[in-house]
What we know:
By secondary structure, the chain is of the alpha/beta class.
Amino acid sequence: MAALARPRGARFALGVLLGAAATGAGVALLGVAAWMLATAANHPGITALGFSVVATRALGVGRGVARYLERLVTHDAAFRTLAEVRVRVYERLAATEPFGRFRSGDLVSRLVNDTEATLDLLVRGLTPPLISLVTGGATALFLTAVYVPGGLLLAGGLLLAGLAVPLAAAALGREPGRRQGKARGELSTALVDTLHGAPDLVAYGAMDRQVERVDAADAELTRLAQRDAAVLGLGAGASALITGLTVWGALFLGVAAVEGGSLSAVSLAVLVLTTLAAFEIVAPLPAVAAKLGAIRASGARLFGVLDTSPATAPPTRAGLDPGGDPTVRVRDLRVRYGPDEPWALDGVDLEIPAGWTVAVIGPSGAGKSTLASVLLRFRDPDGGRVELGGEDITTYPADEVRGMVSGVPQDPHVFASTLRENLRLARPEADDGELWEALRRARLADDVAATPKGLDTQVGTHGLGLSGGMVQRLALARAVLAAPRVLVLDEPTAHLDPDTRDAVVDDLLAAAEGFSTLLITHDMTGLDRVDRIYVVRDGRVVQHGTHEELARAEGWYRDVGSG
C-alpha cells in the first residue's frame, strides 16, 4: 500500500519536514516561553527579553503556517494517490472478473471503505511516525545538550510512549482490525440482500429473520468498534502515565542538579516544560498503531480485488476490422473455472456463418453461458480456438472484439434512469431517430410511444417500471444500437412466462435479421426458425443439424421436444 505513493514520495517527504517544523515549533514555543518567564523573574532589562519575545511570536506564527502547509502538501499527495488507486480498482472491475468472485455488498465495501484505507495509511499511518521520529530526536538532542540526564530521560520516555505503547496497541488492535473489514463487508452484504430481496422476504415471511441477520452483523461491527475504542483509551492512558512519570523524573533530576550547582534555575524551567511539551510529539502514535490492524486488513481486501487473476490474456495485436467477415468458428474449445474443476466446455466445435442464426440448446449446466462468456471476451479458452473472420479473438483487445460481438445477457441490467439514457449506453452519440429505429427493430417502439414521456420515461430501479418482456426488448434494442456484426442472445427468455416468452423470441429473431446470431437457450421456442442447432450436454456437442433433422433423429433434442 505504501508503494502506491512512491510517485509522490518527494511530496510526502516535504510534508514530513513541514510537519516536523510545525511540531518542533510547538515544543520550542513552550521552551522559549519557559526561558522568558524564568528570566523575567530575575527582573532583567527589557532588551534581554527582546529575542525571546520575537522568537515567541515567530514560533507561534510559524507553527500555524507550517501546519497548514503540511496538511496541504500531505493531503494533496494522499488524495492524488487515492484517486489513482480508485482508478486502478475501477479498471480492474471493468474487466468483470471480480464480479463473480465477491458478493455485491462486500464488493461495495471493498470499493469504498477498503480503498479509502490508502488515505488513512498515508495521512494517519505513515506521516505521524516519521514526524515524531524527526522532531523527537531533535528535542532529545537539544535537552541532552542542556542537561545530559534530562535528555536521556526524555529519550527513554519518548521511546516508551512512542514505540512501546504503540507496539502494544498494534498487537491488541490487530485482530479486531482484521475482523472489522470483514464485519463491514458482512453488514453491507446483509443490507443489500435485505433491500433487493425485500418483496420475496415479505412474501415468504422471512423478513424478521433477515432483519435479525442485519442486527447481528451490526452488533458484531459495534462490538469490534468498542474493542477498538478500548484499545485507543488504553493507549492514551498509558501515554499520559509515561508523560507524567517522565516530567516528574525531569523535575526531580533538575531540582537536584540546581541544588548541586550543575544546572541553573532558568535551565530547569526549560528542561521541565520542554519535556512536558515533547510528549505532544508522540501523542498520536498509539491511535495510529491501533488502526494499523484495520488498515492492514483493508489493504488485504483491496488487493484481493486488484490481484484477481485476469481471465483474459493481454492482446498481442490490434486492428480487428469492424467491417470484416463476421463468421464465427469455434474449434475444440475447452474451458474450466479452476485447475481441479471439471470441464465446463470440453472440445466444442461449432460455426456461425455470416448472416446465419444458430442456436445452442441444452440443459442447465451444460456450458452454454460459458460459451457466451468466451465469445464476449469475458474469459479466454483453456484450450482450442475461437475465430472471428478467421482471426483468433484472444489476440485482439477485448473492446475491439466487443465492437463486433455484442448481445443480450441472461439478466440484462437496466439503470435507474430514462429509456433514452439506457439506450445511449450502447452509442452515446445516437440521436432520437436512431433510438426509435432500435426500439422499432426490438418491437418496443409502440409501447414506448404509448407512454406520456416517451424516451424520457423513467424505468425505475433495476427496471421495476418495465415488464420482464420489455426489459429483454430494451436490452435487445441497446444491442442493436451498438451495431455489432455478431449478436449473442444468452437465455433471453429464462425468467419469462410462456406467453411473454413466445412473443419475445419472435421479436428477438426478427430483430436479429442481418446479424450473425447465436441464440443460447434451454427451451424449444422458435427453433424451427433458426438455420442450425447445436445440442450441448456436459460441455460437449452431442447433436447438430436443422430443426427438422434433429426432430427426426434419435437423441436429446427429439426427446425434449416430444416431452
